[in-house]
Amino acid sequence: MRSAFGCAALGLLLLLVAGTFDAEPLYVTGSALALLGLGAAGWIAAGAWGADVHRDLTARSVLEEQPLAVTITARSGLLPLPPGWIDEPLLPEPVRFRAGRRSTRVRVEIRFGRRGRRRLAPPALVLRDPFGLAQRVVHGDHEDELLVLPLTFPVNVTAGGGEATPAHARAVLIAAAETEFDGLRPFREGSPASRIHWPSVARGHGMMERKLISEADSRPLIVLDPRAPASQDALDAAVRATGSLLLHFARRNGCALLLPGDRRAVSVEPDLLAWPQAHVRLALLDDRTGPALTAAQNRRGLVVHVSARAVDRPPRGLGRTPGGCLLVMPGSLPNRRAVLEVAGCQGYVGGRTGGAAAVAAVGGSV
User: Fold this and answer.
1) 325 close to 335: Cβ distance less than 8 angstroms
2) What CA–CA distance (Å, rounded) separates 266 from 310?
3) I need a surface site. Which of 57, 191, 192, 353 has the fewest CB within 10 A?
4) What is the mean pLDDT of residues 277-296?
5) Is this structure's pTM higher than 0.85?
6) Structural element, H or E, at residue 212
7) Residue 175 buriedness (CB in 10 A; 0-12 / 13-18 / 19+)
8) How is domain 52-149 classified at the CATH fold level?
9) Would you say 260 and 289 are in contact if contact means Cβ atoms under 8 Å apart?
10) At a CB cut-off of 8 Å and minimum separation 6, what does 364 contact?
């Protein structure tokens, strides 16, 4: 409003000079400037009284590169809106509108190319007279928060291993005595009759079978180490590869996920009930801490070590797991043949034991 009041003050000054020196031509100029300044200030102030602007999001979480519909609505108060524009941080430039409207609405689609939490500053309604003398800005009442989830991709096996599962690996898996009870699940064709939970059948709950802890240990385990990435793109690629591999194994027979900050791996069953929470954690992951590898050293199944940097060997304790170890990382290793590709990352057999078993575990679920 400073320009409007300055214009009005100049008009009053001319009126004062005109009255002092009896300069009649200055009366017209002074009156015009005073009326213009006061009229512009009053018009914009009255138009901004009671006006508001807000943003509506169709979702609070969205995948990378997935379009999100956003609607910005501005409404007038007691009087119709003066001329102005909507200043939305998500738009490359403000959207102008004409005077006299009771409301104006802008619909846009936005995309985010990188995962993470986004805090969106509130939109603003800028009201300004045609001469640019008076201006009022009406801000939205709150900012919005949006979560961008990482994309997932199919897993492509590029090498088949060429041999059956080694005899020592099969012997270790068979020797894992299923002795400790770990809950129930629906009966699967081919399961031994000794595992049927007959009390469930007697109660009319259908055919259920016992799930044993050693069986959970034999499922693939995915370990993500986000430390020291070559770039932010490399970290994002490792996160996408982790999510893709998690879905790949979970849809088959279930698997487990070990993220930084966890002391125990999180199980993801074929029903994918635990997937949404894991997906959110992957979206918010940073590169400050690494995983607790002690939770992965006693696994009997395949261990997939996903790293945000290039590594040519598995961490200590993971290279001799019975089910084998796979190293997944952005880029490629020289003089090494990748066995899988996923989300811009390459997978290599790690360690000296269980290599064929690792390849078979991945290839068998494609």
Assistant:
1) no
2) 25
3) 192
4) 89
5) no
6) strand 208-212
7) exposed
8) Immunoglobulin-like (2.60.40)
9) yes
10) 252
Residue 153 to residues 71, 309, 324, 344, Cα–Cα distance (Å) = 30, 20, 23, 9
Question: What is the 8-class DSSP label of residue 196?
Answer: B
Radius of gyration of the chain (CA): 33
Tokens (6 digits) for 264? 């125990």
For the record, the structure tokens of 187 come out as 């009966």
Q: How many degrees, rounded to 5, is the angle at CA 121 between CA 115 and CA 124?
A: 145
Would you state the structure tokens that stand for residue 210, as one six-digit string? 């016992």
Q: What would the two tokens of residue 72 be?
A: 């910005």
H or E stretch covering 217: helix 213-217
Name the token pair of 105. 């609405």
Distance CA 60, CA 49 (A): 31
Q: How far apart are CA 229 and CA 240, in angstroms?
A: 14
Residue with tokens 């009442």: 141
Pick from 63, 69, 61: which is nearest to 114 by CA? 63
134 with 41: CB under 8 angstroms?
A: yes
CB atoms within 10 A of CB 296: 23
Domain ranges of the chain: 2-48, 52-149, 156-176+218-363
10 Å Cβ neighbour count for 200? Answer: 17
Return the sign of the alpha-carbon dihedral for residues 240, 243, 248, 249.
Answer: positive
Higher pLDDT, 47 or 322: 47
> How do the residues of the chain divide into helix, strand and coil, expressed in percent and rounded to 5?
30, 30, 45
Mean pLDDT for the chain? 82
Angle between helices 275-283 and 232-250 (to 10 degrees): 170
